[in-house]
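Posting here for the record, re: adenosine-5'-triphosphate.
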Amino acid sequence: MEDQLATQALRESEELHRVTLLNMSDAVFITDDHGIFTFICPNADLIFGYGPDEIRTMERISHLLGRELVDRELLATSGEIRNIEHEITTKHGAHRALLVHIKKVSIKRGTTLYTCRDVSERKDAERTLRRNEERLTLALEAASMGTWDWDIPTGRMTWSPQTHRLLGDANGSHAPSFASFLGRVDAADRERVSRTMAQAMEGAASYETEFRVHGYDDSERWVLGKGKALKNGKPLRMIGVFVDLTARHHIERELQELSGRLIHAHEEERIRLSRELHDDLAQRVALHAAELTLLRGRLKDASPDVHEQIAALSKQTAGIGAALHRLSHELHPARLSALGLDASIRSLCRNVTEAHKLAIDVAISGNSTAVDSDAALCIYRITQEALQNVVKHSGASRATVTLSIQDSNIRLTVGDDGAGFNQDAVKGKDTLGLVSMRERARLVRGQIEVTSSPGHGTRVDVRVPLSMPEASHLTNSPEDKSV
Ligand SMILES: Nc1ncnc2c1ncn2[C@@H]1O[C@H](COP(=O)(O)OP(=O)(O)OP(=O)(O)O)[C@@H](O)[C@H]1O
Ligand SMILES: [Mg+2]
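Prediction output follows.
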């Protein structure tokens, strides 16, 4: 009875093994010490394409696998050899990547157990992943982008080769770390970069910021840093890219210098024209007026209509003289330094009101003597252009000019409640007014904002620092300083 039970248990166990082997995707073989098969699993054809009978006729496992895989000495000492990567060709000519484990056993008259797993799909996926990574690296490098990855709990950071290069470490000899990255950031930008990244980390958010780096090789670069923080309760990881903006910055700087020079040349040309008008034409007109007065004195006996004609000519001449004078002052606001910004703006507004019948509410507060000459010229020219625009485009009969000189800033607002305009629609327009207002503000480190929409009027807001840390190019010749 006990024998029967034991035989039954054995049969069941064998059946279980058979079913398990059949349902496994791995192929299992047992061989003797010479590699001759003593067991071939029934499902070997799944991987090899050959059925058990065909495999048996091959006699040795080296014939099936294409070569001897086992290092007998190693197997004898360690009892097991795992993860041998091996490629085979199936009965149907397909290539398969296998992972083979070999183990010393003593079953079915055999001594060596081979388990072969098909890892072709995984290998293909790995290959595709690697190819994609290579493409991504190529694209990032083409865009001058480096990547980095920061594991917060361990503090470990990795930099892509391009990141090493951006930080002036072409050989990759410096160990990546957040501290070594921050050490390369320009001292003036360091605190801001560190704070921006810390805030992103706190909020598990993205960030974007520009800064300068001083590379290990003493190079100086402009970099855009973009990154994203990942959190799982605690800060976990931060990943990001660095984009090399150096070339763009050089071009931008050159363009800015060029527009600064153009505005400077423009100012000089206005000064020259203003002098021509004032010193030559206006003087000649004044002489003309004086001669007309003399002539009138000499023609005492002439008829009244001759006198009337001469009086009319004198009046016209005086009018031309006044217009020339005004124009000359508009071109070169000589009173700006003599009278100060306050009086010059009031005079400008008065002239516009007289010439164009535009009522202007002027409100000026603060001490304009503290205003630096570049800042004053900038505010004066912007007011001039903004008022010209009100006259030319708004159709408004009233405008406001508000100037407030504060401790460190000058604030100017020129507003009208006229036609307004769509700012997107004028972007491509070939006009200079708005562009030069912006450029003038930028040259004195100021900010300008134009708010307008059709039917709702226009407002130009400007904020300019009271004085510049270093001299600008607008009024830098001794003569120009008198503007
Ligand atoms: N106050 C305003 N009211 C209505 N439209 C305006 C006003 N200011 C500007 N615009 C619109 O914006 C456009 C651009 O202004 P901008 O000063 O650059 O050029 P412009 O005055 O036409 O020519 P330019 O100033 O070069 O002589 C104008 O053509 C006009 O359509
Ligand atoms: Mg204009």
